[in-house]
Amino acid sequence: ASQGAAAASAVEPLTKLLTDASAPVRGHAARALGQIGAAAKPAAEALSLLIKDADPAVRRQAVQALVAIHP
To answer: Which positions ≥6 away from 61 have C-beta within 8 Å?
Structure first.
């Protein structure tokens, strides 16, 4: 379920975590952004970069987040 505008304040800090050295941190941040939904559109560019991440779980979370956000 989308968290929407109520979670919009989390978009910026979560976007910063997309470049964390830890793959689980990147993946969880991507998943959280996807749960925020359309309000996370500002993170779409950073999420799109994760599609080429070395970790397959991170790639999967990034794709699912982008689908949920509909940039």
So the answer is: 26, 27, 28, 30, 31, 34, 50
Radius of gyration over every alpha carbon of the chain, rounded to an integer in angstroms: 10
pLDDT in the model for residue 42: 96
Q: What angle do CA 22, 53, 3 make, to 5 degrees?
A: 75
Alpha-carbon gap, residue 66 to 40, rounded angstroms: 9
Residue with tokens 């998943």: 31
Higher pLDDT, 71 or 61: 61
What's the whole-model pTM score?
Answer: 0.90
